[in-house]
Amino acid sequence: MMKHHTIPLATLCKGGGSYGIAASAVEYSANLPTYLRITDINDDGTLNKSGLKSVDDPDFINYYLKPNDIVFARTGASTGRNYFYDGGDGGLVYAGFLIKFSIDPQKVNPRFVKYYCQSKDYRDWVRSFNTGSTRGNINAQTLGNMPIPLLPRSQQDLLADILSALDEKIAINTKINHHLAVAMSATDNSPDIRRGRRVSRRVASFRLSIRFSITCSYNGLISLLIAA
Question: For a Cys staple, 38 with which of 17, 73, 90, 111, CB 3.0–4.6 Å?
């Protein structure tokens, strides 16, 4: 079995890790930037769009995320939770309990880093710091030293393409499930509504199956390529 070398995350980025803005959240407003906090990041690295807040601070302009940025939760029970920004979720300003790294696409496929940070290997690395005085805390220097497998670019691209395709399927399925959930909330007890509820339950079950599959794919494909 061939063992690939690793390289520190910071070496693959433009500059080091940057801490977010220390500002309080305010009620969401279309006239203010959307505020990205730890609680707005799901465990699978997607944006939790329910309960989003805004930020009203004169310095927010310096904390906008740019494509290929990745942010990590640095404290609490959610330490290590991360979110990769590709621009698809609109403008986001990242909060103070998040640490941002700007991945350099000339050095690595940014989506490869995104998916690696959803893998079991990554989570095991985070858990290794949950002891003693460092429990539940990771700083920018530690994150910058995180070892990233140095795979050939062709393998990085292959893994990123496969998992991106799976992500797209999940996104489509999530939209379908949302629309059916809206139908479930209707009080009408007509055959069409009852049928919609049955379909919605099936879609919800299918969504869980797909999420399990993509989680296995993160771990399996990364492990397979690292071991290749």
Answer: 73
Rounded to whole angstroms, the Cα distance separating 64 from 134 reads 29
Distances (CA, A) of 186 to 128, 177, 198, 205: 47, 15, 14, 21
Cα separation, 132 vs 130, whole angstroms: 7
Q: Buried b / exposed e across 91-113, counting CB within 10 Å, b at 16+?
A: ebbbbebbbbbbbeeeebbbbbb
CA separation for the pair 68, 218 (Å, rounded): 19
pLDDT digits (tens, 9 = 90+) for 7-32: 999 999 999 999 999 999 999 999 99
What 3 state SS string does 152-187 have? CHHHHHHHHHHHHHHHHHHHHHHHHHHHHHHHHCCC
Q: For residues 119 and 219, is the Cβ–Cβ distance under 8 A?
A: yes
Give, in order, the Cα–Cα distances in Å from 200 to each of 42, 184, 197: 22, 8, 5
Fold of 6-149: Adenine-n6-DNA-methyltransferase TaqI; Chain A, domain 2 (3.90.220)
Report, as an integer, the average pLDDT of 149-168: 90
CA 144/CA 130 separation, integer angstroms: 17
Q: Report the C-alpha gap between 148 and 125 in whole angstroms.
A: 11
pLDDT band at 188 (very low <50, low <70, confident <90, very high): low
Residue 199 — very low, low, confident or very high, per pLDDT cuts 50/70/90? Answer: very low
Q: Where exactly are the structural domains of the chain?
A: 6-149, 154-227
pTM, two decimals, is: 0.77
